[in-house]
Write a structure and sequence with these properties.
about 280 residues; mainly beta; Tumour Suppressor Smad4; 2 domains; about 10% helix
Length: about 280
């Protein structure tokens, strides 16, 4: 209830602005949470065979020494199956079974699990007392504007693939359920969406990326088309990719078609994030 009164104080009684502020507050809570992006502390690409981990520099992968014993064990990659052999244990256990859900290992304030990108496997390390989490203060935003919520026409593109390049240079393809055609300041533009027909995911760039938003573009989520084939793009909810908060994420970049030649001055800025001005 106190939080609701705070929102009302911040934005007055405008229901739309209140809705946007609630969404922003929820996002910050998620960023700070145990599964959020702010606590990422490492990304280590596995080689086939044994990979030693721990706080000592002699390991293949060095974890934060202030939060880790010198030697924690070995992460073993064998033909797409990843196992973990803790220091002093006699038997390894699988932490990334083929087709299964990754298992999270923990030690003091550290959490780690396996991710797969293409045909490569990596340890994603979290530190619940990490430097980026402690340093985070706030996110800067453009002013909320009802004009930045626009109606778009959904054009199905079933079977079409988007060729995505991520920040590491890796490329891959993903399905695109449709293209969104909309007007911005009287001119027509379009964005290709990923995700599903029910929940669309858009990676877009615009002219502000050269100024006060993240240089690698921003993300936008939106429900799929309604019965009339319309989708509402609320750029007030455009948000920074994880790479704006941590160097240990692998973020997709906007496709060439999704780099808009206009300035979308709505949503999150990159001011103060990870060294951005």
């Amino acid at each position: 209830m106190k939080l609701l009164f705070l929102y009302l104080f911040l934005v007055g009684s405008d229901p739309y602005e209140l809705e946007v502020q609630k969404a922003r507050q929820s996002r910050i809570e998620n960023l700070k949470g145990e599964s959020g992006w702010l606590n990422l502390a490492g990304l280590f690409w596995l080689k086939e065979g044994k990979n030693s981990i721990g706080g000592a520099s002699k390991n293949d992968f060095e974890f934060p020494k202030e939060h880790a014993n010198p030697f924690l064990g070995q992460v073993i990659l064998r033909k797409g199956v990843v196992s973990y052999l803790p220091q002093g244990a006699k038997k390894a256990h699988e932490i990334f079974p083929a087709g299964g859900k990754p298992i999270v290992e923990s030690h003091q304030s550290l959490r780690w699990f396996i991710i797969k990108r293409g045909d490569k496997y990596a340890i994603r390390l979290r530190d619940l007392e990490g430097e980026y989490l402690k340093a985070f203060k706030e996110i800067a935003y453009y002013p909320i504007s009802a004009a930045s919520r626009v109606k778009a026409k959904f054009i199905p593109t079933q079977g079409q693939k988007l060729r995505i390049i991520d920040i590491t240079g890796r490329s891959y393809e993903e399905d695109s359920p449709g293209k969104l055609v909309f007007l911005w300041e009287g001119k027509e533009y379009s964005l290709s969406a990923g995700g599903t027909l029910q929940e669309l995911f858009i990676v877009f760039g615009d002219v502000t990326n050269q100024q006060d938003t993240y240089g690698g573009g921003r993300f936008l989520d939106t429900p799929g088309p309604d019965a009339e084939g319309n989708v509402y793009l609320d750029f007030n909810l455009a948000y920074n990719p994880p790479c704006a908060f941590t160097p240990f994420a692998t973020c997709p970049l906007p496709t060439r078609e999704n780099k808009l030649p206009i300035a979308i001055r709505a949503g999150e800025k990159s001011t103060g994030l990870l060294g951005h001005k």
